[in-house]
Amino acid sequence: MYAYHSHEKINTWKEIGSMINTAGTALAVNIFRLREGVSPEEFVKFSSEVDQPTLADQKEVARFHAFRILGDAEGGGVGFEFIELIEVGDWGEWIAWRDNSTALSEVRSGFDELVEPGSVRCSFLEPIGRSSADQLSGSETEF
């Protein structure tokens, strides 16, 4: 479930900590594909009715947004079907909580049922320029 990882393996908590932005939060983007035979509408329903409301109620999650990828600007495919943006306080604590919390059991099982194993890719983000870190966590700036 939510196999948050980059293309390169993160080996230590120190490496994870180095990816935390200056606002003291971790901001990540996850991209993934659905299992064969699962319609995008099935994931949209799950995300809208289970995933997003459940995560919005968790104190560990500062922000969470999900998006369906419709294609690239030229009308071609991009290899992934959905994007999720998540901002949490401490990444290591979030991972431990996410993987073990009973509050997320329905989210974990639904995600595992719908999302293609091994397709989830996670990248850590750092705001630059006008979207600097001081605008994160509770600001008027949205994803």
Structure description:
With 143 residues, the chain is an alpha+beta fold. The radius of gyration is 15 Å and the shape is globular. A four-stranded antiparallel β-sheet has the order 2-3-1-4, with helices on one face. It has four helices and four strands; from the N terminus they run αβαββααβ. 30% of the residues lie in helices and 18% in strands. The model is unreliable at 1-22 (pLDDT under 50). The protein has helices at 13-18, 40-56, 91-100, 105-114, and strands spanning 26-32, 61-68, 82-88, 121-124.
Largest sheet: 4 strands, antiparallel
The dominant shape is globular
Q: Helical percent range?
A: 25-40%
pLDDT averaged over residues: 80
- Unreliable segments (pLDDT under 50, ≥5 consecutive)? 1-22
Topology as H/E string? HEHEEHHE
Strand content: 15-25%
Helical segment tally?
4
Q: How large, in whole angstroms, is the Cα Rg?
A: 15 Å
This entry's quaternary arrangement is single chain
End-to-end span in angstroms?
23 Å
Biggest sheet: strand arrangement: 2-3-1-4
What attributes does this structure have?
disordered N terminus; alpha+beta; 4 strands; 4 helices; four-stranded antiparallel sheet; single chain
Outline of the structure:
With 143 residues, the protein is α+β, with helices and mostly antiparallel strands. 30% of the residues lie in helices and 18% in strands.
Please outline the helices and strands:
Blueprint: H1 13-18, E1 26-32, H2 40-56, E2 61-68, E3 82-88, H3 91-100, H4 105-114, E4 121-124
Antiparallel strand pairs: 1-3, 1-4, 2-3
Helix pairs in contact: 2-4
